[in-house]
Design goal:
Number of strands: 19
CATH architecture of one domain: 2-Layer Sandwich
Number of helices: 10
CATH class of one domain: Alpha Beta
Distance between the termini: 41 Å
CATH topology of one domain: D-Amino Acid Oxidase, Chain A, domain 2
CATH superfamily of one domain: D-Amino Acid Oxidase, subunit A, domain 2
Bound molecules: flavin-adenine dinucleotide
Oligomer: single chain
Shape: globular
Largest sheet: 8 strands, mixed
Length: about 375
């Protein structure tokens, strides 16, 4: 094992991969990524991976717009294939006001996020498989889409490796040595790597890695189910991701001939990230199917092909924890993305790398600093993880 590095990243999920790539591109010195299992072993692999700038905070809109531009030219910018499918994203809603929609359309307009308002009469033309009440409207995000979460992560890893980053799998970090208020090294079963800067990209294990440096991070792990279905005939024509704000459910393509569906938001179901039940219960299947069938009657005639549970790394306000944390020199975080960290990740790494290398950056990540500043605004509601 390497005995020293300028920067050690803990975790090779999407955030660790993105940061590694951008640090190498910024010429930040020697970078090592330590991953306890393998690349994209955590929640990244199960992500809905939907990308749409539908938010009420400028920071997310900016980051997702920047990431979308990267996804659109992935092979040229990063190299390889992120599995990006840009068939647009359609949100059904009963009102365009911010709390109902979970997004601020004025702010999105000011920041250049492209969208179209869809009148009730025009919804069936865009989503012919759905039934509508007549009072529902839509917001169509023409540049919305989804990617393949594993391919996205793997191509960022490959790009980082080409730039000299070393990824070490099966290398669980078990300790962080701190002396005189400064990070000295990370410890694994195979040895110690001396470093002055550690970035905690451990996602659902972010609080545990924080504890190794003596830092308390308020991250709770909650279990969330996703159901999988065969695609009925009427949904075989490519169309937008269906994001049903009334039934609080989304439905999107999941590879050739399959669909995935899940509820918006999250309910409290606290688990251990190393031993949680990855299945979906009968009651959870019935719940998702009922909501999907209400909107898409053809779903009554298609079989479920199982599903899986995954985990969100929730912070108290649903915002991530990004930047230097604690009184320790050399301990940074990029974790706690609270079920919403896929869409922005390819861009986030660039802005953290700029902060680490003391370069200017167009996106100010300070709203994600921990602890939050006194004037930080909470999210509009606690179940804000909207799809
Ligand atoms: C079901 C689901 C649907 C989602 N849908 C969307 C969506 O549509 N759009 C969106 O924007 N976001 C979505 N998200 C959220 C998004 O996928 C996550 O925010 C993002 O993938 C988190 O990536 P990460 O790299 O921070 O963490 P993780 O994926 O948790 O990766 C952390 C890595 O660190 C490693 N690790 C942990 N501890 C150690 C250690 N001690 N030593 C070494 N390695 C360690 C782990 O093995 C893991 O590989 C969804 C999430 C889920 C679960």
């Amino acid at each position: 094992m390497t005995s020293n590095a300028d920067i050690v990243i803990i975790g090779a999920g999407l955030h660790g991969a993105s940061l590694a790539y951008h640090l190498a591109k910024a010429g930040a010195g020697s970078v090592v990524v330590l991953e306890k299992k393998h690349v994209a072993a955590g929640p990244t692999a199960k992500s809905g991976a939907m990308i749409r700038p539908l938010f009420s905070d400028a920071i997310y809109i900016r980051l997702v717009l920047e990431a979308t531009a990267m996804f659109e030219q992935w092979d040229d910018v990063i190299g390889g294939d992120a599995g990006f499918v840009q068939n647009s994203f359609l949100r059904f809603t009963e009102s365009f006001d911010q709390p109902t929609l979970g997004a601020d359309l004025d702010l999105m307009t000011r920041l250049g996020a492209p969208f179209e308002l869809i009148a009730p009469a025009d919804l069936p033309g865009l989503a012919p498989s759905c039934v509508f009440s007549g009072s529902e409207s839509g917001v169509l995000l023409t540049k919305g889409g989804f990617a393949d979460a594993i391919k996205t992560t793997e191509s960022l890893v490959a790009a980082a490796k080409r730039l000299g980053v070393r990824f070490i799998e099966d290398a669980e970090v078990t300790g962080i040595d701190v002396a005189n208020g400064k990070v000295q090294a990370v410890v694994t079963a195979s040895g110690r790597i001396a470093t002055g800067l550690v970035v905690n990209c451990a996602g659902a294990w972010g609080d545990r890695v924080g504890a190794m440096a003596g830092v308390t991070l308020p991250i709770e792990i909650h279990r969330v189910p996703t159901a999988l279905y065969r695609k009925p005939e009427s949904l075989r024509v490519p169309g937008p991701i269906l994001s049903d704000g009334i039934n609080q459910i989304y439905l999107r393509d999941a590879g050739e001939g399959y669909l995935r569906a899940a509820r918006f938001g999250w309910t409290a179901d606290r688990v251990d990230p190393d031993s949680y039940d990855e299945t979906v219960s009968r009651a959870q299947h019935d719940d998702v199917r009922r909501l999907v069938e209400q909107r898409v009657p053809a779903m009554r005639r298609t079989p479920s092909v199982g599903g899986f549970s995954a985990i969100y790394d929730m912070t108290p306000d649903g915002h991530p924890i990004v930047g230097p944390v604690g009184d320790i020199d050399g301990f940074w975080c990029d974790c706690g993305w609270s079920g919403n960290g896929f869409a922005s990740a390819p861009a986030v790494g660039a802005h953290i790398a700029a902060a680490i290398t003391c370069k200017t950056s167009e996106v100010d990540l300070s709203p994600f600093a921990w602890p939050r500043s006194a004037d930080a605004t909470p999210r509009p509601d606690v179940s804000w993880v909207r799809r």
